[in-house]
Amino acid sequence: MELSPIIAPSILASDFSRLGEEVRAIEGAADWVHVDVMDNHFVPNLTLGLPVVQSLRKATAIPFDVHLMITDPQRWAPAYAEAGAYNVTFHAEACDDPVALAKTLRAAGSKAGLAIDRDTPVEPYLELLPYLDTILIMTIKAGFGGQAFMPEMLDKVRDVRRRAKVNNLEIRIEVDGGIAADTIEQAAEAGADAFVAGTAVYGAADPAEAIRKLRGLAARAMGVA
Ligand code: DX5
Ligand code: ZN
Q1: Are 145 and 199 in contact (CB under 8 A)?
Q2: Is 61 helix (H, G, I), strand (E, B) or coil?
Q3: Which pLDDT score is estimated for 3?
Q4: What pLDDT digit, counting tens, does each position of 56-113 carry?
Q5: Helix (H) or strand (E) run with residue 198 in it
Q6: How many angstroms does the Cα of residue 187 sit away from the middle of ligand 1?
Q7: Which of 36, 39, 117, 133 is catalytic?
Q8: Burial of 37 (0-12, 13-18, 19+ CB in 10 A)
Q9: What's the CA gap between 201 and 179, in Å, rounded?
Q10: What is the DSSP string of 70-123?
Q11: What does the angle CA 98 – CA 103 – CA 108 come to, to the nearest 5 degrees?
Q12: DSSP assignment of 142-188, as one string?
């Protein structure tokens, strides 16, 4: 069974002084809202954390896709699940027992996601797919929005898709970084079925319309349009 595409706008590219309105602007169009948590340690950038997620949660019913770019996710990630996040993704590079953390997150009520940064090979993690709901393949180096999409990262997407097919796994394969109208189709053809888009959505004059366009392109490339 082919799944329809998930479009997850990243609020990193939105106006932080109007976060509630920015999230409401994508209601009815977005599947998830992607929340980039950066700690100025795992990545050089610093964004937002738990109190903002807790407040924003009350402003919308859209499921939250929390992307933790932080060190020590074992310590911090469960609170995001408890705050009502739909999916909580932590980085492979920051975690020495991803299966244990995935189990903890599921027990805390969220889906569990593992992120693979630009310089990390995916092969060692293919064994872990049965314990995960989401695998996020970075198509840039994690840390900043607005970077150029790296098509060579799609080999990792193909590897995951192949393994998921062979083992009949239900897992969302998410791509993050430089996803826009001119890159989403190749990501979908490689096997991605969840698409984070910051600049391409919030940089557009009409964010909801930008989402619909991305969804159409992805669905056609996935053969589910
Ligand atoms: C960067 C973040 C991304 C970022 C993507 O580390 O993980 O989610 O917001 O931004 P764009 O879509 O502009 O590349
Ligand atoms: Zn992200």
Answers
A1: yes
A2: coil
A3: 82
A4: 999 999 999 999 999 999 999 999 999 999 999 999 999 999 999 999 999 999 999 9
A5: none
A6: 15
A7: 36
A8: buried
A9: 10
A10: -S-HHHHHHHHHHTT-SEEEEEGGG-S-HHHHHHHHHHTTSEEEEEE-TTS-SG
A11: 125
A12: TT-SSPPP-GGGHHHHHHHHHHHHHTT---EEEEESS-STTTHHHHH
As for ligand 1, residues whose beta carbon falls within 6 Å of it are 10, 12-13, 34, 36, 67, 142-147, 176-179, 196-200
Does residue 219 sit in helix, strand or coil? helix
- Across 108-120, b (16+ Cβ under 10 Å) vs e yields bebbbbbbbbbeb
Tokens matching residue 223? 């053969």
The gap between the terminal CA atoms of the chain, to the nearest Å, is: 14
Please tell me the distance from the alpha carbon of residue 69 to that of residue 19, in angstroms, as a whole number. 20
Centre of ligand 1 to C-alpha 215, Å, is 17
